[in-house]
Amino acid sequence: MQFFKSEAPSESANHERVGITNQLIFDFKADLSSIPIPERLNNPFGTKIPKVARIAAEEFQEFIAKENIYAPRKLNTENLIHTLHQKEITHVYLHFDFDCLEPGEYDKTYYQVPDGLSIQESENCVKALQKNFEVVGSSVLESIAKHQDGLAPITGIIEAFMK
After folding, report:
1. Number of domains comprising the chain
2. Domain limits at 97?
């Protein structure tokens, strides 16, 4: 699981700075870390990932390293909150891709990478972030569940995002 923080200043009509929104992305390791990019998607067709997409992901990995973006190998919610407070961050946008979860707990994703987040630690982290920061928006993606019952294992995470 990786975190990515970006700052996007917003401006009012008279161009005064009114604040910074910080984006936290929970995402699949290969998108944001140095593990190899898979050749194929985890779908019934085994769709091959285009070479251009793999090259873009590799370039993004280089950008993460070069820009020293906060991207820990393991989740440490307390450290994440401390880091954000040190940077005087008060408002966040949360994005959660379900492919960052441990495949043994949730496998309804195109990418499945061992040593992902547990569902419980993900839920706890989202709730802790909501408690410590003003969440200005959120999104959840990367589930390929075909039926409602396929979402059952991640219902707690989805409900936490709906608060």
Report:
1. 1
2. 5-161
